Amino acid sequence: MIKIKFKNLDQSEMAREAVTERINVIIEKFPDLQNSKIDVTLEMENSPFKAGPDAFLVKVFVHTGRYKGITVSKTNPNLYVALADLVDNMLEKLNRFGDKVRIKERNKARKLAQQKEPGADYVEDEFI
Fold this sequence. Notes:
This protein has 2 helices and 4 strands. By secondary structure, it is an alpha+beta fold. The protein has a single domain (2-115), classed as Double Stranded RNA Binding Domain, CATH 3.30.160.100. The protein has a 4-stranded mixed sheet, with helices on one face. The chain is elongated and about 70 Å long. 13% of the residues are buried.
């Protein structure tokens, strides 16, 4: 479930569609995200004390599921460029998260195999 929040920014159907489209691309590549609760925050940062361009912040937070706790945010003067940067970064982060899980499982399997090898306390069943 994707929830889109607008902060210091007028709600725009065009921005909502762009976010939904981009997040769905990520969900297609990582099917485990399909049942996850995902919050996307679109924010405009504008300082009343400093003159200069507005900065748009796009932030994604995964609340539930396999990728629980992943947060990615990107800032850019253009909202859509910030969204594109976020999608690229999110893909990298999800890939690394999956790699970490695979490495942990592989190391755990190696440790179990090493624990069984040194001691000949167990006997393997032979099938006739």
